[in-house]
Amino acid sequence: MILVEKKRNPKWQRDELILALDLYFQLEPGQIHARNPLIIELSDTLNKLPIHGDKDEYEKFRNPNGVGLKLSNFLALDETYSGKGMAATSKLDKEIFAEFKDKKELLGKLANAIKLSAINPAIRDEILNLPDDVDDDAKVKEGGLLYRYHLARERNPGIVKKKKEKALKLHGKLECELCSFDFQRVYGEIGYGFIECHHKKPLYTLVEETETTLDDLMLVCSNCHRMLHRGWIDF
């Protein structure tokens, strides 16, 4: 029998830390231990997230002990806690804690949306089937999974086609709704019909809706679209 050596657990990603921090704010320090049913439940959710591929490759992937240790890292960052906590915090731990310590309502909404990406097969499939051309440089405040789902929704060929057809019928052209760039005007025939679509709604709301409407989308040029994904404008 050949024994396959397990990999070390991967670094915690933003989506995972959002879930962990949301639970942290619901617990008292004495409740942070591997036997807590809520920590066990979070461990199960983390194992279902479509982030790290084959979880069996890793040793004790996001088990209750590991989840409890991560929550203890937040104790070390919490100014309201009189103890020490686990001091081995990462840069991302510190960033997430600082970002959401005064935004617990938003944190809860994001956490609930991320959880749905773990338990809803349709959402998981859309995320997993998205081509690997995601803009890694984008400023994704909400989390990587929700961003990928956002891309899947705004790239749906059926709704994009309808959005373009409506604009052509109304205006006779396709131009960016933010800067008025018209690909056909600049590039000629090769630019006819070319424009991108951006989904305007906050990412955490997308998993609660079953359909994207034409009003949810706006037509934008490639440059404006990239800047929107970096957080240029919040609708």
TrEMBL record:
InterPro entries: HNH, HNH_nuc. GO terms for molecular function: endonuclease activity; nucleic acid binding; zinc ion binding. Transmembrane segments: none annotated. Residues 176-230 form the HNH domain. Keywords: Endonuclease, Hydrolase, Nuclease. This is HNH endonuclease. It comes from Sphingobacterium puteale.
